[in-house]
Amino acid sequence: xxxxxxxxxxxxxxxxxxxxxxxxxxxxxxxxxxxxxxxxxxxxxxxxxxxxxxxxxxxxxxxxxxxxxxxxxxxxxxxxxxxxxxxxxxxxxxxxxxxxxxxxxxxxxxxxxxxxxxxxxxxxxxxxxxxxxxxxxxxxxxxxxxxxxxxxxxxxxxxxxxxxxxxxxxxxxxxxxxxxxxxxxxxxxxxxxxxxxxxxxxxxxxxxxxxxxxxxxxxxxxxxxxxxxxxxxxxxxxxxxxxxxxxxxxxxxxxxxxxxxxxxxxxxxxxxxxxxxxxxxxxxxxxxxxxxx
Length: 293
Fold this sequence. Notes:
The protein is an alpha/beta fold.
């Protein structure tokens, strides 16, 4: 088996590429920067370049796909089409598409949801052996500036999940702030768990043509999550969350991400973020993840 990982320089794709390489597989990482985890062969390219995407698939048997933080419908459709054409030409035996989030059942008017639903539809209609992996929220999101209301350990690099440095005035008031209703249960998932689940979805038997909801071992409410860090929970205003995110990824992208949290707050989808099948992987609880920081 020879693997192609899209977004291998990013947090999600990097976790997959790292897990594959550590497992001894031959891994090629498509990246615009050429930076990939140790043991991964870099392949410079962009999802918008059909020729480079097709070339990246040369000799590949399995592929892991995740889309960048782009939410323009035509652009996402073109990215998806390029992957489909490249995978078909290579005759891939399995393609795992990580949607980046759980997807509501119907159209929402939220581009971050609806463009991924369209990508899933195109992939499943392509005839390719596709596994759709729909992760719950990532524990690494909690490392964004201003979320954890207590200083991180001195040994921690002190950067948010998107690379933004934690501010010097990072609050030490014992509060975990996140833009989710306190009573919404979420099966929080770490990037390492995502990597392991993706590898299991790529290599496991009987999974082709399936949809897998990826999540941690149990769903916890906001107060239960905060307790894992020795903190209390406070629902963060989405506008405050958006303003902090904008400093890391830009205003337009932050607005689209924030729209998903506004939809969640209004729809109160109690069952959307529950745990999924473990696929034989041992997943960390929030308390274990917090202890490992």
